[in-house]
Amino acid sequence: MGGNDTIQYLWSTVGVPSIVVAHFSKVLQPSSSTVNVKWKELLSNKNNNTVLFSPASDYISSVAFTSLYEFTDPKNKVYLDESPEVPVRHSLYKVRWQKPTIYEKGILFKGTFLNGSIAFKVGSGLLFGCDKIEPM
Known about the structure:
With 136 residues, the chain is mainly beta. The protein contains one helix and eleven strands; from the N terminus they run βββαββββββββ. The protein has one helix spanning 39-43, and strands spanning 6-12, 18-24, 34-37, 51-54, 59-64, 67-70, 88-91, 96-97, 101-103, 106-113, 116-123. The longest helix has 5 residues, at 39-43. It is elongated.
């Protein structure tokens, strides 16, 4: 990461919780990189070119949380293949997601799920021992 690098984070619960991270190394001013979201197309599942960065990013990473697996874990090792029962897959598309809560180092996703609730935090930056100087 160079001194003029910029990172854009996009957090969403359209469909399922998703995160897009775009890296720009050629941007001279952080405010000169922009993102344009074509909401009508995105919400109608026309996913081609619905999120556009300007200038074009050097690279993009993304993750979408689509499923939750419920299983018995008597040894607390988080190994699905050691569960005495068959794991149950729950689609996170069925969750009624609230607006994400953004905090200083990440985001909190919360929703109503299986007659209860689900919540998880996703962090970034200094939380994971990254460079002491964060990108703008």
